[in-house]
Specification:
Blueprint lengths: L12 E6 L5 H13 L3 E6 L3 H4 L2 H8 L13 H4 L4 H4 L2 E7 L1 H9 L5 H8 L4 E5 L3 H5 L1 H12 L3 E2 L3 E4 L5 E5 L3 H12 L9 E6 L4 E4 L2 E3 L6 H12 L3 E6 L11 E4 L3 H11 L5 E4 L6 E3 L18 E3 L3 H8 L4 E8 L3 H11 L4 E6 L11 E2 L1 E5 L4 E3 L3 E2 H15 L4
Parallel strand pairs: 1-2, 1-3, 3-4, 4-5, 8-11, 8-13, 11-12, 13-16, 16-17
Antiparallel strand pairs: 6-7, 9-10, 14-15, 17-19, 18-21, 19-20
The protein binds cytidine-5'-triphosphate (CTP).
The site of cytidine-5'-triphosphate has 14 residues, from helix 13 and strand 16.
């Protein structure tokens, strides 16, 4: 199985819960392969798991601190700003002991792993491993049946020689099968199948001369997350982007641009052929009136650069729109709601994504965002602090809900 560069694993937040069983050592390989495939792996170990493998091993393989305790030892930076449960795209437990299986079925939350498992809304993958008699015990069988009915993906153990000296069903499934279960869990419903989505990203560059330009603090991360998630929802995606240095979302067609005028030309040219336009780009409102043909040399006096207005690309699309769903962004520092509603109506948008860029964890350069969604029917939904990939999913779900009416 080839997993490097796998679009479903790259950039995903995978939480790996490790329980106390001899098979814990095999999970080192799982964590290593996830990390190499580009996943961000957060390992949580139960107290007994740390008797089998040192947390440092998982820390080195995942390149992240390992969470080992519910109280006391958890360092703020390893839990990050976003709670582990909220940030997870998928939650894997391997090896899943009879103990954690029973706790998850019963809703018991007595350590960090069990608590986070209950708190997460991410899909859960359990890879059980235990003694054959434990695995065939009616309590464990029943617990697994109930969990499967609740949507948990169970990776059945293998039959063979067990560490306790006996033989039978209870060996942890091979890493390939666990990875396949994770990929299955990460697949999104094809909400946007057959839909053509145009996303703009990055801050535009407005030339002063051949070597200098005016730009802004936009990193492009929100736009790239939107393009990547739209591909995963089944859309045909075109990403019109300024230079960002970010990895290109696998499956998206990328059209590079620099200035607002270049972006406008490309977007206007594609508008009739798309169903959705999401303008995550930070378009400069002004550009130098007359960019110099040659490098501007310094002299003793002051330098004044005259700026002229750029066209508002999104407002122009709002005038032209027929069947298209239009999504705009508003990066604000004050009176967020007032400015957001004004932009939603003035630009004739279906959805406006507003964020206060001064809030910690929101806005430029971060991997997380705090946004409020305003729709054309007066709907308002405040999303909490979330990774940009999750914000992207929520925006795209809203778009998918509007599309059938078009
Ligand atoms: N936008 C655009 N063309 C511009 C300016 C903005 O298409 N020349 C788009 C952005 O991509 C974003 C939305 O409009 O989706 C809002 O951009 P923003 O700069 O926040 O709003 P403005 O309308 O420019 O208002 P102001 O600068 O006064 O906040």
């Amino acid at each position: 199985m080839t997993i490097s560069g796998d679009n479903r694993l790259a950039g995903r937040q995978v939480v790996v819960g490790v329980c106390g069983g001899i098979a814990a050592y095999k999970v080192c390989d799982l964590v290593s392969r996830l990390a190499r495939a580009g996943s961000k792996v957060q390992v949580i170990m139960t107290r007994s798991a740390t008797k089998f493998v040192a947390p440092l091993t998982f820390q080195a393989l995942s390149n992240q601190p390992v969470i080992t305790e519910l109280f006391g030892e958890i360092k703020q930076e390893c839990v990050a700003h976003v709670s582990v449960a909220e940030a997870a795209d998928v939650f894997v437990v391997a090896p899943a002991t009879a103990n954690i299986i029973g706790k998850l079925r019963a809703g018991i939350a007595d350590d960090f792993l069990a608590t986070t498992l209950l708190a997460t809304k991410a899909p859960v993958v359990l890879a059980p491993a235990m003694n054959v008699n434990m695995f065939s015990h009616p309590a464990v069988r029943e617990n697994l049946t109930v969990l499967r009915e609740r949507g948990v993906i169970i990776i059945e153990p293998e039959t063979g020689r067990l560490a306790c000296g006996t033989s039978g069903k209870g060996r942890l499934a091979p890493v390939e099968r666990i990875l396949a279960g994770i990929q299955e869990a990460l697949a999104l419903p094809p909400l946007l199948a057959g839909c053509r989505v145009l996303v703009t990203a990055g801050g535009t560059r407005e030339a002063i001369d051949p070597v200098r330009y005016i730009t802004n603090r936009s990193s492009g991360k929100m736009g790239y997350a939107l393009a990547g998630e739209a591909v995963r929802f089944g859309a045909a995606v075109t990403l019109v982007t300024t230079p960002t240095g970010l990895p290109v979302p696998v499956g998206a067609k990328v059209i590079p641009v620099e200035s607002a005028l270049e972006m406008r030309e490309v977007v206007q040219g594609l508008f009739d052929q798309v169903d959705v336009v999401i303008k995550a780009a930070a378009v400069a409102d002004y550009r130098p009136a007359c960019p110099a043909k040659q490098k501007v040399k310094k002299n003793a006096g002051q330098l004044t650069i005259e700026l002229v207005r750029n066209p508002d690309i999104l407002a122009e699309l709002g005038q032209r729109k027929r069947h298209q769903v239009l999504v705009g962004f508003a990066a604000e520092t004050n009176d967020v709601e007032k400015h957001a509603l004004e932009k939603l109506h003035r630009k004739n948008l279906d959805l406006l994504v507003a964020n206060d860029v001064t809030a910690s964890g929101a806005g430029f350069g971060t991997d997380t965002n705090i946004v409020t969604l305003y729709d054309a029917n007066g709907g308002r939904e405040a999303l909490g602090l979330l990774p940009k990939t999750k914000v992207a999913c929520r925006i795209l779900e809203r778009v998918a809900a509007v599309l059938p009416a078009r």
